[in-house]
Amino acid sequence: MIADCVDNRQSRSEVTKQALMRSAEKLIAERGIESVSIRDIVQAAGQKNESALQYHFGSLKGLVMALHTSRDSAVRARRSAHLAQLLDNCPNPSLRDICKVMVAPSFELARAKPDYRRYVKAFGHEITSSEESALKLVTKKGGESAQQTGILLRNKLSHLDEAAYRRRMDGALRYVSAAMVHHARQKNAFRGETGELFFYSLIDGLVGLLNAPESAETMAVVTAINSS
To answer: Does 77 lie in the same domain as 42?
Structure first.
């Protein structure tokens, strides 16, 4: 009997937490986080007690961190599955195959789940606008599968020295993030032929961005910076 009561409380608590998280995603996607209050989220989640958010998450920042943790976990799981399947089929995959592993997890989640599309609209810009290295951010959040993907990419981009590789990856990750946010705001985003065209065009762009050689102009600027 006591165990049943505990289970019921935990179940109700999880339902409340999910309602708050989904309401926050929806409101932030529509208005931007600066225009959303704790009261707005609590009311949208159908909670009568205005302290519900603080009780479950401590603060709005805590709720956002929980959102990121949940979404990052789903992306990692899909990336791990894609990576395992790819390496089982081809131990030495092409650059395009690796780029698919980079893009497919978030694309598939956005195609399948309306709430994930709202998450992309609400928070996808964070990588694009971050002052911190996008490569560092994604590797930190992406876990082992992101590190494995990074190793595969580094091997395929041996024509770039380490500094050039990091610059190129930073630009590539910001490009993917910006493209996902923009597409998420379109009608019928991620679905049908429009979604397929976006997916494969994004991979095309990513392959081209990563695989291009360093130009003489870029190398001259790098040399000048290093010698100053």
So the answer is: no
